[in-house]
Every structure is written in structure tokens, then in C-alpha cells.
TrEMBL record:
Protein name: Helicase
Organism annotation: Desulfobacca acetoxidans
Taxonomic path: Bacteria, Pseudomonadati, Thermodesulfobacteriota, Desulfobaccia, Desulfobaccales
Residue ranges of domain Helicase ATP-binding in the record: 116-284
SMART domains the UniProt entry points to: DEXDc, HELICc
Transmembrane annotation, as ranges: none
């Protein structure tokens, strides 16, 4: 080798401190001022760089000798090959992301991530498995696998506010991924700085991201991957009005490369809405409802996947007779209706409140679509819901409205000018955050349809009278539902068995407060979760996480919760749930049950629904529950409960009852209107398809078992990683002190600059290196039991050492090395080849390492790339054997390995592309037909002379 810059020429390979890898010289040109302009390509990264070098800098470069001399460092060459293999470990371990994550996934999770998401050249997917299926785990696995492939650096997770902390916690605990939880205050505090650009891994709330003042900053950022949890909240809400959440969905679609939508309730019973929702994945592929329905019938729906709980099983276990049996993950759900009747003063209160609500609703309906009328109509139905929940909740609302109207009456002109707040459509109202909904109710309390001050005084007097009636009912301690609750607690053994836990749901915070007080007075240890609580931590009293942890550990027996606990909280330690009031949104029932009916639940889940059978609302809800149970019994399928939201839109019950209160429906019409779509045939059809898209009704367990076994054989074991780190550290240099009493554990010294420099690599997509790492282990169990840093491929410390090793080994790669082999009787040569298949955009689809052995007169043959581990590095002989000068077997390799590799990759891609193309063709055909119809109608209108037809 030489070091004189005068020998620099096109085609030569140079190394030196200026570069972190060997560089091939492509162009050399003197600039005339004593410097040289040199174009170079990295031998590993294949990135082109043009640099201006002085004569002194050129003198510092080393030109590697052309051709293989086999004088390289054999230890370093072998270590470099191992570093390369570990960098593409996901190519030969089908579940590599699992090997370096703290999760033990289930078959349906593996199928979703590895057979659907990662098979797509660009992830654009709706994953709509039932609640409790572990969608957070699947999202985390996708993040890990895309990062390993170098495809995801900037990642955004959008979810309801009450789930944000859970995402942050689970990604840290299970995948060692650190995401920033970005709140409104963080953005305001950094005025003038776009926090979306500053951070690479962000979790934020759906309702923060949708704000008009937030959208411009968000629009400036392009994300590698966006995951939206509870994505059904972004649905387009009819009539044809785009919600702020839907507009956010369009923005996220347009600013992301990979996009994953997660929801357990994708359909919401409205096919047109579902079609618009799917356009958040691809605006062209989903032309209308008919194309989607037809695609599903033909099983050509490549963008979404749904599996019901009933299709989910554990990995099979071998039975004594040699056959395999797969146990279902989810136990049974056994719903029970707890019916009761109200009477006496309680019934009088119900009758009088209902009359008041009907009178106000009819007045509102008479004013059409006036915003004030809509506001009052919504408020009246809300009072009826509060009445069904508890007398206490109703009284608080009545008193609050009376007080607000009295305050307005003192400023009569202000009351008349009081503008109603913008009301979202009923479907969007059903999806509002609890705190946001309470804030809206507070604003609505000041809105009245009274025409003058006397009418306002009349309404206030009626509100005060109703509130006094409610207070008298409370004081009597004879509320029928509360009495029924106490009796049921006795019957189910809660008073006698303090270890038996209960989850009790209600819609309203006021009812929650009321129940907590009553339950404590009966001697129960009680906790609560509601929308006004911050996530907090397991050690911070008064927070959601603290209440959840206390319930799990048995410190509290009864957990009372509002809908804030209906999503994202895992309480499978409990198997009994009371619905103290029935939500008018049927999706809420499934979400509530999903808190206890999930992975890890070992008991059948008992669900008790409280219904007053002599109220209008109670009658229709009881009939709905009975009808669902009848259909469930007829189909013998619990999936009925999973898909109820696909038959009944979220606001269906609300709309029907509001029409009833307004006088548009009579008592006889109410049940017929409510249940018009609830029939066995419709549920049967939906349960059979369950929006599965590509998925089959049953998982391909044989394939999954075989693949899991293959992954076990090929997985990178902790001792392999530890040995690599130990050997590679010597070339940094870095001292890793071995901890004798813990397997595969070491204590590193301070992180040297030689490793820190890799943070500046253009393709570095990991967090910065720590200045010093604590005690580390490559073994997952050891790290978890001893609270150590778990170092695996994908960890910044490991990746920096791997890259440093690859750069160090570059010279050995270009020279070759000699080894002793006990397996060979005569000289042989091993040639290593890196093969990449790239797509039309230049993205690497697959990458593999091939080893070809040449030995004497024998034909070339493929060998395992790990074969060098069986050999010992040796000094080169005085004279190289003839086999060393044989030409490279590129033609043989292409015919015997590379072509098959290419064909395999092409077939994989073609299958996916054909599936997508078939669906897009179906959709575009529908779009063209619709356009033809519109053009034809426009021509007819023009011929008729209709104004504006031109």
C-alpha cells in the first residue's frame, strides 16, 4: 500500500481519519489553488461525497493495494462479517424484532405484523382487531422492525389524551423506545420553535393535534411512520361536513410515508362513513361503498385487517395423542340484565322531568336548525341521560342551569345575546373526551329559548322545583337502582369476600362521586378513574395509574369509572363488571367489557346491566339488550357484541330518543325505529366477514408454529451478542468489565469519542449515545431481574460498536485473510458477496450475505456465512495456492443463488401489488362510472336550459 497523494487515481480505494469507511475514488480534479476536488463513494454506505482536500490531507490517506493479498487481519475480517450479519439480522430471523423486545406475542399479533404490515412495500393499513387484542404490542413491533430496516426515524403516535401515557409507558417498558409526550403547554412554552420538527419520536393527543393553531406546525413535518390509535374518532360525520378530526386525518395521511390506523370499532354501522374513513389510508382506492363491499366479497381488500376475539388463540400445545390443540385466548362473556322499577316520588320525578324535557325539545324542534334550538335539544336529551344515571347527577345539572339562567337574568341583554357554542354532530359528540363534554354542557346551561324575562323566570322556577324533588328522592335513601345495587353486591358475595373485585361503570362524574360515597359508607375500599384525573404514576395518589395499580394489587375492592377508563386500561385481574347506567352509544358497551375481557383473563366475565323497565329509555335499552342476546344465542357467537357498532351507529339511540322527546315519534314507533336494523341475518353476515379484509376466519397456525420454530433456530442468542461486543470492544478501544456472577453482563467505561462520532453518520436514526452506560446485559431475563441496561441490536451502544467494527474491518475486507480449517484437506477459498434487491425508488427491499466456496476441481458451492467461526486466523503462506487467483464466481452465484433471491422477492412484491391493483381498479371503475353519470346529467341540464348548468 502507498500513502503519496500523487498516486490517487480513479478506481482506487482510500482509507484515513477523514472518513468513517473505505472510499472508492470516482473522480479526481486539481482545482488550481493547491487543493484537489475528489468524488468518492463509501464502500459500505454506497453514498457519494464530493470533498475538497489539501495536499496535506491527501498525504494522510492510505491507498489500499489493488486485488486480494490475503494479508489482512483474520480476526477483524471475521468480526466485520459478523457485524454486517447482525446489521441485517431481520433478514434471516423472521421474528427478529421479537428477539430484542420484552414481549411474548400471540399468533394473531405475529400474523398481523409479519404477514401483512411488513409485507407491504409501504404500510397503509387499518388494523381493526377487537378490544383487548394487543394493538399497542403490534404497533410497537412495527416500530421496532421498521427501525431495524432503517425505514423509520421520525415517528408520530396520535391517540386520545387518556391513552397517551399508556403508549409512552408500554413502548418504554416493552421496546425500550423513548417517546416525548407533547402537550399544548409544551408548544406554548416554546413559542417560535416548531416542536414537531425538533422531536423525532412524539406522542400527542388527537384533540390537541386537530386544533387550528397546531395544524400549521404539524403540516411542516414529514413523518416516516404515523400510528393513530382509536382512529375511528377521525371518521367523517354526516351530513356532508368534514370534522376537524377528519381534516387532521387527511393531513396525517399526506405527511406520512407509513400510516397505521388502529381501532376496535371501524365501521360504526354507517357504510358511507366507513368509505370516507378508509380514504384516510388512500384517497383513490376507496371510491364508494359499493366498491368496498365488492372488494370484501372478492377478498381483495388489501388495506385492512380485522379479527374478532373468538378467532384468537394461544400457540397450540401438543396433546398426549400427538395432535395439537389451541386454547382460545378469550373467555366467555355472560351478560345479565338487572331490571328494576321506580315508583313513588322517584317515578313522579321521572314523569315531571320527562314532561319538561319533551316540552323544551318540542319548542326547539319547532325552530328548525337554529343553533340555539339545537343546543337546547341536545341539553334536554343530556338531562334525560343524567336522570337515567342517578338522581344526584340530574339534580346537579338542574341546579347549575337554574343558577346560570339567574346570573343571565341579572344582565337581561347579555342573556339574549348569549351565543350558543358550536355543536358537533351527534356522532362526534359521542366520541368527545369526558372533560371536553363537561365543558360543553357548562356552556349550554346558559342557553335558553325563552322569549322574554318572564319566560326565563318561569323556567328557573320549574328547574328549582324539579331540583327540590330530586333532593327529596335522594334524602329518602330509597332509590330503586341503588337498592338493587346493594342487593346484588350481597348476592354476588362482595360483602363476604373482600378479595373479589368489581369494576363499576357510569357515564357521569357526578354519579361516580355519588357511588363512591355510598360504597364507602357500606364498608368497601373504593377507588375511581375519571376524565379529570391526570395519568400520573403508580406512586402518585389521585392519578389514574395509581388507582389502576391499587385495584390490581387488591388494595381497593371496587373501582368506579367513567368512560375515561373505557379505553386503554387493562383490568383483567377482575372478571365482574356492573354497568350502572347503559351508554346510549353501543360501542361503549364493548369498550367497557374490553377492560376485563382481554388477554390474561382466566375467568368467564360476568356483565350486569342495570335497566329501569318502567321508563321509556329503560324499555328500549332492555329490548335492545334482549334482542342482542337472542341473536347471540341463535348464532352461538360472542362476536355479536364485537360488531354491534357496525349495525348501530354511535348516535343512533341518541337520535331516536331526541326525535321522541321532540314529538316526532310516538311510544308505538320508538321500538320499531330503534331496532329496525337489529336482525339476525345482518349480524350473521357481519360476524362471518367481520371486516376481515385479507384475513381468514382462522389463523394459519401450522405456518406460524413452523416459522416460530425456525426463528428459534436462527435467533441471535445473548451469548452471541455478548461475545461480539467483547471481541469488538478491543478494536475501539473500550473496556467492558465482565460481571462474573451475572450471565452475559458487563460494565463499560466511558463512551469514547470513536463511538460518539457515529451519531453524526447521515443514516444514524437512533437516540444519542450516553456518555457512560450503567451495568449492561445482553440477556433479557438477567436485565429485567436486576434492572440493568438491556443491550441488543438496535440499541445505540450496540449499533455504534457494530458500525465502528465494520469501518475497522474495511481494510481486511479489501485485502482478504487466511484461515486454518480442520474441515478441508486441501486449500479452498471462500468469497463473500452482499446482495441487495432495490425497488424503483431505490429503496432496499431485501439484503443478504452469500458465501461461495471454491475448492480444487470441485464446482462452486454455497456455504453458511457463519462458517468462518469454525476456522482459526492464520498467517499467509509464502506463496498463495492457485485457488487464490481463480476468478470470482459471479456467474455461478447469479445462476445458483442471486436469481432465486430476486425471483423470491419479485413474487412477494407482485402478490402484494396485484392485490392492491385489483382493488384500485375496482375503485377507479366506480369513480369513472360516477363521473360519466355526472357528465351526462350536466349535458341534460344544459340542453334543458337550467341556470348554472354550464
Amino acid at each position: 500500500m502507498t500513502s503519496s497523494f500523487s498516486h490517487i487515481h480513479e478506481g482506487c480505494i482510500v482509507v484515513g481519519s477523514l472518513f468513517n469507511e473505505p472510499m472508492r475514488v470516482e473522480t479526481v480534479r486539481a482545482s488550481g489553488d493547491g487543493t484537489w476536488i475528489v468524488g468518492l463513494v463509501g464502500m459500505q454506505s454506497e453514498r457519494f461525497r464530493k470533498v475538497t482536500l489539501s495536499a496535506h490531507e491527501l498525504e494522510g490517506l492510505t491507498i489500499l493495494e489493488a486485488g486480494f493479498t490475503y494479508k489482512g487481519d483474520g480476526h477483524l475480517l471475521r468480526l466485520g462479517l459478523q457485524a454486517y450479519s447482525l446489521g441485517i439480522a431481520w433478514e434471516f430471523d423472521p421474528y427478529f424484532g421479537l428477539s430484542i423486545s420484552r414481549v411474548d406475542p400471540l399468533p394473531h399479533q405475529l400474523e398481523a405484523v409479519y404477514d401483512y404490515l411488513l409485507k407491504a412495500p409501504r404500510v397503509r393499513f387499518l388494523l381493526a382487531d377487537d378490544a383487548g387484542a394487543g394493538k399497542t404490542i403490534m404497533g410497537g413491533l412495527l416500530i421496532r422492525e421498521l427501525q431495524l430496516r432503517g425505514l423509520a426515524e421520525r415517528i408520530l403516535i396520535v391517540c386520545p389524551a387518556n391513552l397517551a401515557f399508556q403508549w409512552q409507558r408500554e413502548l418504554k417498558e416493552k421496546f425500550d423506545e423513548k417517546f416525548l409526550l407533547l402537550r399544548g403547554g409544551d408548544i406554548r412554552d416554546q413559542f417560535g420553535v416548531n416542536q414537531w420538527l425538533e422531536q423525532k419520536k412524539v406522542i400527542t393527543s388527537l384533540d390537541l393535534a386537530k386544533r387550528t393553531e397546531i395544524l400549521p406546525g404539524l403540516r411542516q413535518v414529514n413523518w416516516d411512520l404515523i400510528i393513530v390509535d382509536e382512529a375511528h374518532r377521525m371518521s367523517w360525520t354526516p351530513p356532508a361536513r368534514k370534522t376537524a378530526r377528519y381534516a387532521l386525518g387527511e393531513l396525517l395521511r399526506d405527511t406520512s410515508d407509513h400510516l397505521l390506523l388502529l381501532t376496535a370499532t371501524p365501521h360504526k354501522g354507517d357504510p358511507a362513513n366507513f368509505s370516507l374513513f378508509l380514504k384516510l389510508l388512500d384517497p383513490d382506492a376507496y371510491a364508494d361503498v359499493r366498491s368496498i363491499r365488492e372488494a370484501m366479497e372478492r377478498r381483495r381488500a388489501p388495506f385492512y385487517l380485522r379479527r374478532t376475539k373468538e378467532a384468537m388463540v394461544y400457540f397450540p400445545e401438543r396433546r398426549p395423542d400427538g395432535t395439537w390443540a389451541a386454547e382460545k385466548i378469550f373467555t366467555k362473556r355472560i351478560p345479565n340484565t338487572v331490571d328494576f322499577q321506580i315508583d313513588g316520588p322517584e317515578f313522579d320525578l321521572y314523569r315531571d322531568v320527562t314532561r319538561f324535557v319533551k316540552r323544551q325539545s318540542a319548542k326547539a324542534a319547532a325552530q328548525g336548525d337554529d343553533p340555539r334550538a339545537r343546543a337546547v335539544g341536545f341539553l334536554m336529551s343530556l338531562y334525560q341521560r343524567r336522570l337515567a344515571s342517578s338522581t344526584y347527577a340530574l339534580r346537579h345539572s338542574l341546579e347549575n342551569r337554574a343558577r346560570r339562567l339567574e346570573e343571565g337574568l341579572k344582565k337581561a341583554q347579555e342573556l339574549a345575546r348569549q351565543a350558543p357554542p358550536d355543536l358537533p354532530d351527534p356522532e362526534e359528540l359521542e366520541e368527545m373526551e369526558e372533560v371536553e363534554r363537561e365543558r360543553l354542557e357548562e356552556l349550554l346551561e346558559a342557553i335558553t329559548l325563552a322569549a322574554n324575562a318572564d319566560q326565563v323566570r318561569e323556567e328557573i322556577a320549574e328547574l328549582r322545583h324539579l331540583a327540590q324533588q330530586a333532593q327529596a328522592v335522594e334524602a329518602s335513601n330509597l332509590e330503586a337502582k341503588l337498592t338493587k345495587l346493594k342487593n346484588l353486591l350481597h348476592r354476588e358475595g362482595f360483602f363476604d369476600n373482600p378479595d373479589q373485585r368489581l369494576l363499576l361503570f357510569t357515564e357521569f362524574k357526578d354519579t361516580l362521586d355519588y357511588l363512591v360515597t355510598k360504597l364507602k359508607s357500606w364498608g368497601f375500599s373504593v377507588g375511581c378513574i375519571h376524565g379529570g384525573m391526570k395519568p400520573g404514576s403508580r406512586d402518585e395518589p389521585g392519578t389514574r395509574l395509581y388507582a389502576e395499580q391499587q385495584f390490581r394489587e387488591g388494595a381497593i375492592q371496587v373501582l368506579v369509572a367513567t368512560e375515561a377508563a373505557g379505553e386503554g386500561i387493562n383490568l383483567q385481574v377482575c372478571h365482574i363488571l356492573f354497568n350502572y347506567d347503559i351508554p346510549w352509544n353501543p360501542n361503549r358497551l364493548e369498550q367497557r367489557m374490553g377492560r376485563i375481557h382481554r388477554y390474561g383473563q382466566r375467568h368467564d366475565c360476568l356483565i350486569f346491566n342495570f335497566v329501569a323497565t318502567n321508563t321509556i329509555e329503560g324499555k328500549v335499552l332492555q329490548r335492545l339488550l334482549e334482542k342482542l342476546q337472542e341473536i347471540r344465542n341463535a348464532l352461538d357467537d360472542d362476536a355479536v357484541f364485537n360488531v354491534v357498532g357496525e349495525v348501530l351507529p354511535a348516535a343512533h339511540i341518541e337520535r331516536v330518543l331526541r326525535d321522541y322527546y321532540a314529538g316526532k315519534l310516538g311510544d308505538a314507533d320508538l321500538e320499531e325505529r330503534l331496532l329496525e336494523n337489529v336482525d339476525e341475518s345482518r349480524f350473521r353476515a357481519i360476524c362471518q366477514t367481520a371486516l376481515e379484509g385479507l384475513a381468514s376466519k382462522k389463523l394459519n397456525l401450522e405456518m406460524l408454529i413452523e416459522r416460530r420454530a425456525r426463528a428459534q433456530e436462527r435467533r441471535v442468542v445473548p451469548e452471541t451478542i455478548a461475545r461480539f461486543l467483547r471481541d469488538a470492544a478491543a478494536y475501539v478501544p473500550l473496556n467492558l468489565r465482565i460481571v462474573d456472577n451475572l450471565p452475559h453482563t458487563f460494565e463499560p467505561t466511558r463512551t469514547p469519542p470513536a463511538l460518539r462520532r457515529h451519531e453524526r453518520d447521515p443514516d444514524w436514526k437512533l437516540p444519542p449515545l450516553a456518555s457512560k452506560y450503567p451495568r449492561c446485559s445482553t440477556d433479557r431475563d438477567t436485565a429485567e431481574k436486576n434492572n440493568l441496561e438491556w443491550v441488543t441490536p438496535g440499541h445505540p451502544f450496540f449499533e455504534a460498536i457494530r458500525r465502528h467494527t465494520s469501518a475497522k474491518a474495511a481494510q481486511a475486507f479489501s485485502q482478504g485473510a487466511c484461515f486454518y480449517s480442520l474441515q478441508h484437506a486441501s486449500p479452498a477459498r471462500l468469497d463473500f458477496f452482499r446482495a441487495r434487491v432495490v425497488d424503483g425508488l431505490g429503496q432496499v427491499v431485501h439484503e443478504r450475505l452469500f458465501a461461495v466456496e471454491l475448492a480444487g476441481n470441485s464446482a462452486p458451492c454455497l456455504r453458511e456465512p457463519t462458517l468462518l467461526g469454525d476456522f482459526s486466523p492464520a498467517e499467509p503462506p509464502a506463496e498463495l495456492p492457485a485457488i487464490a487467483r481463480e476468478p470470482e464466481p459471479l456467474t455461478w452465484l447469479h445462476q445458483n443463488a442471486l436469481q432465486a433471491f430476486l425471483d423470491e422477492t419479485r413474487a412477494e412484491r407482485l402478490t402484494e401489488v396485484e392485490r392492491i391493483a385489483a382493488h384500485v381498479e375496482l375503485s377507479l371503475t366506480e369513480l369513472l362510472q360516477r363521473a360519466d353519470e355526472e357528465i351526462g346529467k350536466a349535458n341534460e341540464d344544459r340542453e334543458k336550459g337550467i341556470p348554472g348548468a354550464d
